[in-house]
Amino acid sequence: MKFGRVPLDEVLGALAVHSLRLPDLELRKGTLLDAALIARLRAAGVEEITAARLEPGDVAEDKAAAGIAAAVSGSNVRADAAFTGRVNLRAAVPGVMTVERAGIDALNRIDEAVTLATLPAFAAVDAGQMVATVKVIPFAVPGSTMDALARAAAPLISVAPYRLTRVAVVSTLLPGLTEKVIAKTLRVTAARLAAAGASIIFEQRVRHDEHEVAVALERAAGQGAEIALVFGASAIADRRDVIPAGIEAAGGRIDHFGMPVDPGNLLLVGRVGAMPVLGAPGCARSPKENGFDWVLRRLLAGLEVSRDDIMMMGVGGLLMEIPTRPQPRESAASVTGRAAAIVLAAGRGTRMPHAHKLSAPLHGEPLVRRAVTAARASKARPVVVVTGHEAEKVRTALAGLDVVFVDNPAFADGLSTSLRAGLAALPEEVDRAVVMLGDMPKVDPALVDRLASAIDPQEGRLIAVPVADGRRGNPVAWARRLFPALMALEGDVGARHVIAENADLVVEVPAEGDGAFLDIDTRDELEALEIHEIAEHADVDARAALEGMKAEDA
């Protein structure tokens, strides 16, 4: 192909290389220069133009691109019509894209004028989605180059359609794992599977026990499940842990445990008979993409996933910043860093309709003042109080207390908005926060301090929850590393699913009494607590008097 600046007298039959905009003429790149166009260019004062002219044996860009696209398209891939030297390749069916990496690299090395770009290998694709593009950069390709491309070209890009559609889900249970977490996990999983045309046909919840896991997997296989997903109440820690032991007890085998993808490290891949079994990592409870998706998609498409396949996922396997990965600015000093308290006091208290709940008196003291006084009696500083509904009443109830007030005008949109407002108000030097509820009047300041001190980013303890008799309560302490996850919450939801998604980061702190579990929603509950505390104090006085009488007798 000849290329360069050419006088107008010599450009007949050549192609314009650049677009040109003149008062009465718009010449587009690649336009064939015929006599009429040349005359208009001359009338506009143009004397020469950059042009390209094909030589004998050259293959025009569109024909070259179409030929290459046809050669590299494998099963379930179709090519668009060529345009300006480009052909886009699209998936003919939904599925997982497979590529021959070595062949694509070899083709791209033949000539810089010809390029082939694809989506990443094993990407999930929908029907009609572009999976690759062939681009011929100049206006033509020499015949010798086309011959070399023809020798190298072969089906290099295919789409493996989703084949497995019948999925079983087994969830193991331990105290503290709530029904809401399991329900959310099932919703997220169903949505994940729906994208691949699959659905949950068997669902069972069992104790976190290898025998019960084995029985559930056997039942799933008997129900015709083509793949089983096991969500453990506790993360898999070893090949000998409950879930892998359950797979083996069902007569299955463990193919691989662990993967170099983050999030997703704790994935387990096994098999019971012909049924693949995935032991899901905690991040699989979240809809965000993680290593679990990478393996699940391949299995749903009927592709084998070997140990080597998993171990080769490390390059590109760092999917996003996650809480378990230390931040650059963190140091050992953060282990004893500064704690703050956030008291959420913006709610409407709709179950106490004839009064403003948080300012309702408890032994003559506003309900919210009890909670905030506990925060003030702890070591946490600052104490941030988030107001919203009847904000002035809350401020009046807390008059004289050294706190930072933050108003949340969006309080009607749900609890998450108040949490975001409180977190945004914290000073940069705060590295952990204890999130408290304004309607919990019996929280012990010592518990607040124990929760805050239990946070240790260096040891991977990023969430501290109070626990008694297997129940988890409030308040909850959070390391700064998890603040972004909390800030991303929406609607009238708390942070339970953030806890569930980061189960490995949770430390349980023993809680005494009922303070971590008692919140006041109704007038009856408030009156019952007042009566209980009067009786409790009366018993203390009586016991003190009795002890005094015994001492006198002695």
How many separate helices? 16
Rg: 34 Å
Helix and strand content put the structural class at alpha+beta
Instruction: State the low-pLDDT regions, or none.
Output: 328-335
Spatial shape: elongated
CATH topology of the largest domain: Spore Coat Polysaccharide Biosynthesis Protein SpsA, Chain A
Going by CATH, the homologous superfamily of the largest domain would be: Spore Coat Polysaccharide Biosynthesis Protein SpsA, Chain A
Mean pLDDT: 89
CATH architecture label name of the largest domain: Alpha-Beta Complex
Strands, total number: 30
Q: Assign a percent range to the helix content.
A: 25-40%
Mind summarizing the main beta sheet?
8 strands, mixed
Rounded to the nearest angstrom, the distance between the terminal CA atoms is 118 Å
Task: Tell me the number of structural domains.
Answer: 4
Estimate the strand proportion.
Answer: 25-35%
- Can you identify the CATH class of the largest domain? Alpha Beta
Domain MoaB/Mog: 168-301
GO molecular function: glucosamine-1-phosphate N-acetyltransferase activity; nucleotidyltransferase activity
Pfam families: NTP_transf_3 (PF12804)
Protein name: Bifunctional protein GlmU
